[in-house]
Amino acid sequence: MAASTRKTTRKTETFTYEERAAMKERAQEVKASARRGSRADKAAEDEAAVVAKIAEMEDGDRAMAERIHAVVKASAPGLAPKLWYGMPAYAKDGKVVCFFQSAQKFNARYATFGFNDKADLDEGTMWPTAFALTKLTAADEARIGELVKRAAG
């Protein structure tokens, strides 16, 4: 059984099998990125890899990931889809701004939509950087669209 579909989380020293699998996926992503040709080819391959990763997700997470993918592309067309630790992510100038983590990725009870420090969301001395998702409503999609547009700068 693949590490991402295990029902229990086992540990090896300090990282779970799921965390180790994510690190291995990231190493493969970096190697694949170094081998590719033109910038346009890389962008097309990255987009295809994100769509393929979304297609592998379980039904509920897949539906949310598909909607988030559409919302991000519409709200911030300057962000480039790419895989990041085996998760759909969206980058500006090669730096990940936001990402979607399915619940099955780390055997969590909910999916997560998060922002990295490159996101331009600073608000006072404290602000959220990740949101738990159990389903997406039209209001949720609108809020995500606003945040992504702001995060992209």
Give a quick summary of the entry:
With about 150 residues, this protein is α+β, with helices and mostly antiparallel strands. It has helices at about 15-35, 40-55, 60-75, 140-150, and strands at about 10, 15, 80-85, 85-90, 95-100, 110-115, 130-135.
Describe the protein.
The protein is α+β, with helices and mostly antiparallel strands. Helices cover 45% and strands 20% of the residues. It has 4 helices and 7 strands. The protein has helices spanning 17-35, 39-56, 59-75, 138-152; strands spanning 11-12, 15-16, 80-84, 87-92, 95-101, 111-115, 130-133. A 5-stranded antiparallel β-sheet has the order 3-4-5-6-7. It has a two-stranded antiparallel sheet with strand order 1-2. Strand 1 (11-12) and strand 2 form a beta hairpin. Helix 3 (59-75) packs across helix 4. The radius of gyration is 15 Å and the shape is globular. The relative contact order is 0.14. Mean pLDDT is 90; it is low at 1-7.
- What quaternary form is this? single chain
Q: In percent terms, what proportion of residues is strand?
A: 15-25%
How many individual β-strands? Answer: 7
Query: Radius of gyration from the CA trace?
Result: 15 Å
Largest sheet: 5 strands, antiparallel
Looking at the structure, what is the overall shape? globular
| Uncertain residue ranges | 1-7
